[in-house]
Write a sequence for this structure.
């Protein structure tokens, strides 16, 4: 088999790879030199001539002619008799160049060479893919569902690159079928061994920020800035927006007429409730806006401890806390302050943890999950509503309320 035919057989598998012919030739030379070094002990006296346009490759072995019986290194020296078999007029001390046919290296060497070549090309491909997706970290990306596993969905993009969407990076309501297109952000790219692991996320706050850029022209153009995004994926999100142009209403532009602009984003996120608020450097006003839709009576801020005490009318407390405590938790994350809610006109209340000797910790934790962490906050609730909102039995809730009432009698 001629060298050129052998090269063509090696390059058959490259058609679907991210590699051009010039790079293939460079890898070929590297691989061939490695094979020659193993076969002959050194590749220093070999010339490898590559023609990338034709895909041709020649290997020439250079040796010095020595007198018969004086050959010490068969790789770099050749006896006069052997040299004259190549050309009859060679003399001692002259250089002999002899072409090496790959087929002369032996079948085992050629198989090893082919395997090494495949490995080098895969390594090159993986490096290119890693660099390509490393530049896409934090950007929106589309891919198609290829395989659904218990802990992750495997996606393929148009170029056949594998992207992983782990279960914990999916919105709880997400449900995908094979062949369906999925949108998310490229969260991270890591090399595991020589193979890049590309992780997509739909739960990252950055995904929501990039959806704003994608769906709202003023955000894309930089007229509106997304200052901060906080999320409880699939449940609720708060987005603080600002504009340097006083003529633009950033909240109105993001929401659109009757919610027309934000509706597509909400649908993409599995009907996640999104509050869009105007950012401000006025901390009191910012916390007030962050706790919407609740109306606040007064705020006391402790900058040293990054905390805020918020006073509300009793009927506003549940709005401030929100279902499952989501509203107050996100408001705290958005502003960077721990927010404590107090009822206006209520002079005396007791933290639920004070009853830990009578009420089990897991029961207290169940109430805390829905934002009820004081005695009066529970006593103001309806028993049936608490049964619906917690994992507690009606009998357990009634018993807790009895204990709490005794505190105030």
């Amino acid at each position: 088999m001629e060298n050129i035919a052998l090269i063509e057989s090696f390059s058959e598998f490259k058609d679907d790879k991210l590699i051009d012919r010039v790079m293939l030739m460079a890898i070929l030379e590297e691989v061939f030199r490695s094979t020659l070094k193993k076969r002959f002990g050194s590749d220093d006296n070999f010339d490898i001539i590559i023609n990338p346009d034709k895909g041709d490759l020649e290997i020439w072995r250079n040796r010095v002619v020595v007198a018969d019986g004086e050959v010490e290194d068969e790789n770099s020296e050749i006896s006069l008799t052997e040299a004259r078999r190549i050309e009859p007029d060679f003399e001692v001390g002259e250089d002999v160049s002899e072409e090496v046919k790959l087929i002369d290296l032996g079948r085992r060497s050629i198989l090893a060479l082919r395997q090494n070549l495949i490995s080098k090309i895969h390594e090159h491909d993986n490096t290119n893919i890693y660099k390509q997706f490393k530049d896409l970290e934090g950007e929106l990306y589309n891919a198609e569902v290829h395989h659904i596993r218990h802990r992750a969905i495997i996606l393929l993009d148009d170029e056949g690159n594998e992207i992983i969407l782990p279960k914990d990076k999916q919105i709880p309501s997400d449900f995908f079928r094979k062949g369906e297109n999925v949108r998310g952000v490229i969260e991270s790219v890591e090399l595991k061994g020589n193979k890049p692991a590309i992780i997509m996320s739909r739960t990252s706050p950055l995904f929501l920020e990039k959806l704003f850029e994608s769906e709202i022209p003023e955000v894309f153009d930089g007229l509106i800035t997304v200052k901060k995004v906080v999320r409880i994926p699939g449940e609720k999100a708060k987005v603080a927006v600002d504009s340097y142009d006083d003529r633009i209403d950033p909240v109105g532009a993001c929401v659109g007429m009757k919610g027309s602009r934000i509706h597509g984003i909400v649908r993409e996120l599995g009907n996640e409730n999104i509050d869009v608020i105007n950012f401000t450097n006025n901390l009191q006003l910012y916390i007030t806006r962050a706790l919407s839709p609740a109306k606040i009576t007064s705020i006391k801020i402790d900058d040293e401890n990054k905390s805020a005490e918020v006073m509300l009318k009793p009927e506003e407390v549940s709005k401030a806390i929100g279902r499952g405590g989501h509203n107050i938790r996100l408001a705290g994350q958005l502003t960077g302050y721990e927010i404590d809610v107090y009822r206006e006109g209520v002079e005396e209340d007791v933290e639920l943890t004070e009853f830990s000797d009578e009420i089990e910790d897991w029961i207290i934790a169940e109430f805390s999950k829905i934002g009820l962490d004081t005695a009066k906050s529970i006593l103001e609730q309806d028993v049936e509503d608490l049964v619906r909102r917690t994992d507690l039995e009606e009998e357990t809730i009634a018993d807790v309320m009895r204990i709490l009432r005794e505190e105030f009698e």
